[in-house]
Structure formats: structure tokens, C-alpha cells
């Protein structure tokens, strides 16, 4: 029976170190500050953003959510970002995704100053990460790396990533490659997915399909990281059949209470990093 990796607990413990860093910054007159732009009325987005506000308040980060209905134009969003880029007191800018169809996500992401891009989505930060340079890392991949490191060494391990999104799949593989793991990417067009996933020492699933990974697809003793966020009958479930896979794996993240809390914590980490740059 697998160990259940307690993301909530690991996140809470990491937040304690962030609290100390924030106290030290505040003693120097620096108040870490984050602004979140939230467009539209998607209930899931509003729920995530509340989680971010709560974490910020807990750590001592000054956060503000700016809400718009989905009639706001792309130009207005870009102009708001310009004014935030110019605000010397502001450290982090986050535009909650997804955006309404009439707003180009890439144009918005690229408008945010790479120095304030606490999501780690700007091409400059993605490029630096790919080169293995120090930079603002994307929050979910960084949180996953932290969780896995509480369980095992990464050098030489076979990491299989299922899912190739810009914000999770692609960058998480890159981060683990930088840690000298052997990385395989799988996606919706992969032939015989089970044959691939059964090779994983560390299996990371970020697809968005409940029940995608079943016990027969997991090597005994593997570490399984479930990044899925699916609402099934108003219940939150991941992409992994938790009840079945926990009998096979050595460690597994639950949903909720696994990767989600770490994502938010790494957003706070990035905000503190920017505030510390001085
Ligand atoms: N610019 C941008 N940056 C993001 O980081 C971003 C985004 N847009 N859009 C949406 C996704 C999704 N995401 C989650 C964060 C925390 C939880 C989380 O904390 N979940 C809790 C449960 C929360 C609940 O019950 O609703 C948990 O897993 O325990 C989930 C999902 C960040 N995202």
C-alpha cells in the first residue's frame, strides 16, 4: 500500500520558511505584493483565486484580485498590464487562465514583464528554464519537483510525463531533465500508453481526464503524481484511479490535497523571490 504524499502538509511546512523570508523583507521596508487579474465568472477560476488570496494573507504577502467581466477588451487588459509593469511597488503579476476567446493568451502572457511573471509563463522565463538558468519557474512543475524530492533522488530515474500542455506537461519534463532524470513524454497520440507508463519510476499525469491511469498501467513501487483537476458529480478527482493505483505504487499524491496546494505555494515563493531581488 502506497504512502499518500500529503501535499497540504508539505505546502504548509514550506510556507513557514516563506513567512520568515517575508518578515525579514518587511523589516527592511519591503512588502511583497501580488496582483491577480481575473476575467469572467468561471466558478473554478474564482475558487483557485480565493486559494491564492488565502495563502498570500497567511504568509504576509499583500495580494489584490482585480475582477472584470468578460466584456473587457484585450487592449484594456494589455494597458492594465503596462501600468502594473511600471509600478515599482508591485512584485508579481498573474493573469488567471483560461481567458475569454476574444483575448489572445499568448499576447497577454508576453506583455507581462518577465521580471514580474510569477507564473513563469513568459517565453524569456521558459527559455531560461530550458537552459537550466536561475529564473522564475512555473508553479505546478516546481511544486511537483519539490514533492517528488521529499520521496526520492532523481538522478537516472525514469520519469514518464503524460500530457504536453504548455503550463504543466512540457515544463515539468524539462525540470526533471535538468535534475538528470531520464524523461519520456506521452500524450493523446501515444501508441500503447500503458506500455510507456509501466516503465516509469516516477509517473506524472497531467491530462485532465478522470480515471485515465489505472493500476495495470503502473509499475509496482512507482511514485505517482496526479495533476488532474476534474469535477465529477461536483466532487474533485484527479486523472489517476486512486483506489486502484495506491495498491501498486510506493507513493501517490491525492486530489485534492496533493499538487494543488504546492502550486499555490510556489506562486508565493516566486513573489517572495521577486521582492528579494531589490
Ligand atoms: N495563470 C494561471 N496560473 C495558474 O497557476 C492557474 C491558472 N492560471 N488557471 C487554472 C490553473 C489551476 N490551478 C490550480 C491551483 C490550485 C489548486 C488547488 O489548490 N486545489 C486544491 C483544491 C481546491 C478546490 O477544492 O477547488 C487541492 O488540490 O487540494 C487547483 C488548481 C492553477 N492554475
UniProtKB/TrEMBL annotation:
Keywords: Amino-acid biosynthesis, Histidine biosynthesis, Hydrolase, Methionine biosynthesis, Multifunctional enzyme, NADP, One-carbon metabolism, Oxidoreductase, Purine biosynthesis. GO terms for molecular function: methenyltetrahydrofolate cyclohydrolase activity; methylenetetrahydrofolate dehydrogenase (NADP+) activity. Residues 5-119 form the Tetrahydrofolate dehydrogenase/cyclohydrolase catalytic domain. The keyword Hydrolase applies. The keyword NADP applies. GO terms for biological process: L-histidine biosynthetic process; methionine biosynthetic process; purine nucleotide biosynthetic process; tetrahydrofolate interconversion. Pathway: One-carbon metabolism; tetrahydrofolate interconversion. Gene3D superfamilies: Leucine Dehydrogenase, chain A, domain 1, NAD(P)-binding Rossmann-like Domain. NADP(+) binds at residues 163-165, 229. CDD domains: NAD_bind_m-THF_DH_Cyclohyd. Residues 138-276 form the Tetrahydrofolate dehydrogenase/cyclohydrolase NAD(P)-binding domain. It catalyses: (6R)-5,10-methylene-5,6,7,8-tetrahydrofolate + NADP(+) = (6R)-5,10-methenyltetrahydrofolate + NADPH; (6R)-5,10-methenyltetrahydrofolate + H2O = (6R)-10-formyltetrahydrofolate + H(+). One of its GO terms (cellular component) is cytosol. InterPro entries: Aminoacid_DH-like_N_sf (IPR046346), NAD(P)-bd_dom_sf (IPR036291), THF_DH/CycHdrlase (IPR000672), THF_DH/CycHdrlase_cat_dom (IPR020630), THF_DH/CycHdrlase_CS (IPR020867), THF_DH/CycHdrlase_NAD-bd_dom (IPR020631). Its EC number is 1.5.1.5, 3.5.4.9. PROSITE patterns: THF_DHG_CYH_1, THF_DHG_CYH_2. Catalyzes the oxidation of 5,10-methylenetetrahydrofolate to 5,10-methenyltetrahydrofolate and then the hydrolysis of 5,10-methenyltetrahydrofolate to 10-formyltetrahydrofolate. PANTHER family: C-1-TETRAHYDROFOLATE SYNTHASE, CYTOPLASMIC, C-1-TETRAHYDROFOLATE SYNTHASE, CYTOPLASMIC-RELATED. Homodimer. HAMAP family: THF_DHG_CYH (MF_01576). Belongs to the tetrahydrofolate dehydrogenase/cyclohydrolase family. This is Bifunctional protein FolD. It comes from Exiguobacterium chiriqhucha RW-2.
